[in-house]
Amino acid sequence: MDLGIATRTALITGADSGIGWETARLLLEEGATVVISDQDQDALDKAAKKLDAPSGKLFAFAADITSVDALAQLHEQVQEAVGDIDILVQSAGITGAQGLFHEITDEGWTKTIEIDLIGPVRLVRQFLPSLRKGGWGRLVFLASEDAVQPYDDELPYCAAKAGILALAKGLSRSYASEGLLVNAVSPAFIHTPMTDAMMRKRADELGTTPAKAIESFLEEERPYMELGRRGEPEEVATVIAFLCSDRASFVNGSNYRVDAGSVATI
Q1: 21 occurs within a structural domain
Q2: % pLDDT > 90, the chain
Q3: Please, are residues 16 and 40 in contact by the beta-carbon 8 Å criterion?
Q4: Strands 33-37 and 58-60
Q5: List 151, 157, 224, 256, catalytic entry
Q6: The domain spanning residue 147 has which CATH number?
Q7: pLDDT confidence of 194, banded at 50, 70, 90?
Q8: Which of 46, 157, 191, 237 could crosslink 23 through cysteines, CB 3.0-4.6 Å?
Q9: What pTM was computed for the model?
Q10: Does residue 157 carry a catalytic annotation?
Q11: Under the phi-then-psi rule, with left for phi > 0, alpha for psi from -120 to 50, and beta for the rest, what region is 228?
């Protein structure tokens, strides 16, 4: 399917692996010019090499989305390399502080929300003028099933992702008349470095293998994931790519769940 974005320019954060990387791959396949960003330049350079894009179609700039100064520098680098962007995909984030509510400190709450909610706010603030310029724009946030189905052992993450949904909906009302469409995608238990780390930790705690940890996690913690497996990053990236496209010209303020049925409500 032609997504109609061959002349568009995208910035994707959290793109050195996982969902962000797969989104970059799909947008490049559609002919878009893509800038990938994450915190570590070496990891980004390796990610860019694996993407193997044509000359002049892919750029990689490291930045910490929680830092106003770093984001200003990223904006300057993007402007110099490709000019204004048309598409912004905010995929950067962490699992953050885990444990029951009474076990999590102020520091745990603050760090998680700083990265998973305030970081995206600062990122959008920095690039919003570019997205509003051309009369056509797409902004996609990575939220989570946790935003609408919170789990008691990762409440800071759940609260931050609920904030992302509210942010996306609010922005969708503010700028749609200018051609900027804003949506969110909410995955559940995707095969990424973040869930790999979660499963290694679970395996250590249970004294078992990562494979058995995944199996028990699905059975005990995610019983509504009817496919009985982790999702793959490409399965989420496909939905993101659609929302970045001309094909999604009447989609605004929506939250697309890519969760194998994990969220129990309709």
Answers
A1: yes
A2: 97
A3: yes
A4: parallel
A5: 157
A6: 3.40.50.720
A7: confident
A8: 237
A9: 0.95
A10: yes
A11: left
| 117-122 long-range contacts, CB within 8 A, separation 24+ | 117/160, 117/163, 117/164, 117/167, 118/66, 119/65, 119/66, 119/92, 119/93, 120/65, 120/90, 120/92, 120/164, 120/167, 121/167, 122/65, 122/66, 122/67, 122/68, 122/71
Domain that holds residue 34: 9-188+233-258
Would you say residue 68 lies in a domain? yes
Domain count, the chain: 1
pLDDT in tens, 14-40: 999 999 999 999 999 999 999 999 999
In sequence order, what are the residues at sequence separation of 6 or more whose Cβ sits closer than 8 angstroms to the Cβ of residue 228? 218
pLDDT at 189 over 80: yes
**Residue 207: Cβ-neighbour burial (10 angstroms; 0-12, 13-18, 19+):** exposed
Asked if the structure places residue 225 within a domain, the reply is no
